[in-house]
């Protein structure tokens, strides 16, 4: 049954090589949301698109770009992995609202309003004061809604997230985070956020990043599935997905770029601690080519039906993207 499903991983930032693309292909992954940007500005973002164009050219037997939901279906039919691009910050639009549509037409399908810090649009989850959505942020939300760019609030603070859910005329996603009831990390989401998300038609992608999980790197598949089960009881299966947040084969310099960008001279340890500044140890059951398949089997063993399990490993992402990637522009 697993091999027949559309399987979508809602967030990865791995070291992208042909060998890893083949690993994704062997894993049965239909499509993956790739982080294109952490802190890069508009010009740097265009260069990153250029780098990926070369990867598509060199690996077109294994991967293909996703600009619309039909491309995910084409990827499944051709046995390739669809690549859809997102930004974990609003830096690609600089301070220019016109760049929202420009980036959407280039293929930036998803954008977070903030990373961990205050941005021009909203507050990040590490700020001591959450000032909510800014004046510019309200304009950008409207523009993202208009052009069919999905709003992601994975790294945003509570007030900013709740205000965005209320302001947006389209459902938003939290592509890679977990409930605070499972693990009280700064970036995980409260029951209030989860309920507002589901009531507005939004989507939560469960993260496999150990700093977001109960018991960290010692989290077992059973622990993960229990978290999914409890969340399903709270907000319903239709709003659940996977956003693994895998960062495989990346050097320490990439971790420093993610956490620091250009804003800090001292290492920001993020959700880890000063005693553990590096990458966390990987989960043994979400390694190699069997990670998503293990989740699929684990959810079935925890009482989810085949249909519900198919929704969580990809079907809900597919439906969410199909509903929200279309432009509302009249010209």
Description:
The protein has 331 residues and is an alpha/beta fold. It has a single domain, classed as TIM Barrel. The chain is built from 11 helices and 9 strands. The strands form 2 sheets. Strands 1, 2, 3, 4, 5 and 6 form a 6-stranded parallel sheet that branches. Strands 7-8-9 form a 3-stranded parallel sheet. Strand 4, helix 4 and strand 5 form a beta-alpha-beta unit. Helix 8 packs across helix 10 and helix 10 crosses helix 11. The termini are far apart. 45% of the residues are buried.
Number of distinct beta strands = 9
Helical percent range? Answer: 25-40%
| Quaternary structure type | single chain
**Basic shape:** globular
Q: What is the tally of helical segments? A: 11
Q: Report the β-strand fraction as a percent range.
A: 5-15%
N-to-C order of helices and strands: EHEHEHEHEHEHEHEHEHHH
The top-level CATH class is Alpha Beta
Largest sheet: 6 strands, parallel
End-to-end gap: 43 Å
Low-confidence stretches: none
Q: Could you state the CATH homologous superfamily?
A: Metal-dependent hydrolases
Mean pLDDT equals 95
**CATH level-3 fold name:** TIM Barrel
CATH architecture: Alpha-Beta Barrel
């Amino acid at each position: 049954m697993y091999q027949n499903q559309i399987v979508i991983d809602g967030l990865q930032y791995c070291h992208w090589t042909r060998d890893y693309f083949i690993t994704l292909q062997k894993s049965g992954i239909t499509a993956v949301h790739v982080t294109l940007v952490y802190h890069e500005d508009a010009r740097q973002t265009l260069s990153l698109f250029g780098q990926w164009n070369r990867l598509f050219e060199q690996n077109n037997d294994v991967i293909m770009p996703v600009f619309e939901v039909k491309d995910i279906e084409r990827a499944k039919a051709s046995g390739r992995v669809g690549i859809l691009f997102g930004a974990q910050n609003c830096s690609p639009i600089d301070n220019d609202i016109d760049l929202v549509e420009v980036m959407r037409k280039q293929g930036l399908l998803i954008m977070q309003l903030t990373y961990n810090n205050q941005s021009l649009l909203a507050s990040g989850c590490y700020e001591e004061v959450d000032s909510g959505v800014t004046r510019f942020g309200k304009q950008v939300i409207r523009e993202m809604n208009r052009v069919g760019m999905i709003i992601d609030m994975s790294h945003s603070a509570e007030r900013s997230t709740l205000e965005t859910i209320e302001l947006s005329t389209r459902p938003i996603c939290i592509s890679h985070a977990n409930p605070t009831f499972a693990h009280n990390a700064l970036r995980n989401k409260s029951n209030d956020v989860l309920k507002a998300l589901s009531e507005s038609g939004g989507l939560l992608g469960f993260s496999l990043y150990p700093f977001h999980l109960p018991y960290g790197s010692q989290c077992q598949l059973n622990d993960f599935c229990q978290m999914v089960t409890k969340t399903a009881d709270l907000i319903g299966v239709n709003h659940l997905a996977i956003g693994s947040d895998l960062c495989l084969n990346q050097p320490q310099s990439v971790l420093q770029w993610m956490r620091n960008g250009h804003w800090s001279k001292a290492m920001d340890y993020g959700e880890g601690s000063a005693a553990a500044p590096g990458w966390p140890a990987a989960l043994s059951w979400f390694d190699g080519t069997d990670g998503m398949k293990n989740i699929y089997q684990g959810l079935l063993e925890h009482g989810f039906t085949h249909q519900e399990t198919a929704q969580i490993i990809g079907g809900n992402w597919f439906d969410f993207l199909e509903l929200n990637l279309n432009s509302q522009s009249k010209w």
